[in-house]
Amino acid sequence: MNKASFYRCIVRNPPKGLAFGLLLLLSLTAFTQDSLFTPSYDSNQVKISTIALPNKVPSRIRIMSAVNIAGYGGALLALNNAWYKNYPRSSFHAFNDIKEWQQVDKVGHAWTAYNAGKVACYLWRWTGMQDKKAILIGGLSSAFYMTAIEVMDGFSAEWGWSWGDVGANVLGSGLFMAQELRWKTQKIQYKFSFHGKNYAGLGLANRANSLFGSSWYERMLKDYNGQTYWLSANIRSFFPTSKMPKWINIAVGYGADGMIGGFDNKWTSNGIPVDRSDIKRYRQWYLAPDIDLTKIKTKKRGVKILLEFLNSFKFPLPSLEFSNGRFHLNAIHF
Asked: Most buried of 106, 173, 221, 268, CB within 10 angstroms?
């Protein structure tokens, strides 16, 4: 695919990793409202034997197998109908997109794989499966299903197999599995936040609408300028004797801004070349407090499920930003 074809592609088609991740998390959570957070560990982190569920284990494994097929399969089917159905197919091919969007899209792929792996692991734990096996199946299945997107890309004339995306998928699921295998908990959580951008002042309203969509949910999924991804560490989990509240986290975030195209700020509009290289593309690094919503005590199972889902997103709080060689404070960072 040449550069001109790529520009036409990114204008007409939105990114897929984050959309698939949100759809997948909602699908799996909806299927498991009564069982998702049945613990496989007691309060002292002592493993509950699968022998305690001799009659339920086979049936629960069958249920979870069906849930995974329905959840993952349904998400992939919806993705195919939304992104691929109306575009031409091709022979399998690769496309090197590692330098586009300042790698924010790759960080998004890792976020999706991490959170999908976490949900899948919880599901398999509920069956009474041996814990190490549940971790490995949950984490590896998220990377596998995320990689299925790359296979679909590889057979689409508009995209291509991306080794960068595959590496990000493996990194995200690996972050989840490594923590579960080492600590049996997620001391460092992978989160997402979004803040809207105003392009009208730059004379780019039409370009932004065609590239990122006009509604808030389209912008959240497509506009990499407004996305931030966070590694949020729970302080008490690293310092158990600390007097800090159990729900206080400290988060390091990454984002980028000034991107009006995948690789650079040049495109063609109605056959006329447009060059907005005057808009600087730059990376952003953040430091901010965060809240671990799963540490909020409640006996309501539905509330626990909601808090666990919402914990995949960064709580809006002030942040310290480093970008363009200088620091500045954001009063509230969404």
From this structure: 173
For 82, the token pair is 């939304």
Contact of 149 with 79, CB cutoff 8 Å: yes
Q: What does pTM read for this prediction?
A: 0.83
| pLDDT tens digits, one per residue of 70-107 | 777 777 777 777 667 777 888 999 999 999 999 999 99
Alpha-carbon separation of residue 300 from 41, 292, 305, 306 (angstroms): 18, 17, 9, 10
**Number of domains comprising the chain:** 1
**What pLDDT, in 10s, does the model give residues 103-155?**
999 999 999 999 989 988 988 888 888 889 999 998 998 888 888 888 888 88
* Residue 34 scores a pLDDT above 50: no
Which residues form the domain of 315?
Answer: 3-333
- Burial class of residue 263 (count of CB atoms within 10 Å of its CB; 0-12, 13-18, 19+): middle
Give all strands (DSSP E) within 216-271, no chain letters: 227-234, 248-257, 266-269
Instruction: Strand 317-323: give its sheet, edge to edge.
Output: 188-194, 227-234, 248-257, 282-291, 317-323, 326-333
Whether the CB-CB separation of 90 and 155 falls below 8 Å is answered with yes
DSSP 313: B
- Contacts with 183 (C-beta within 8 Å, 6 or more apart), sequence order: 237
Place of tokens 């590496």: 167
The model's pLDDT over 228-256, given as tens digits with 9 standing for 90+, comes to: 999 999 999 999 999 999 999 999 999 99
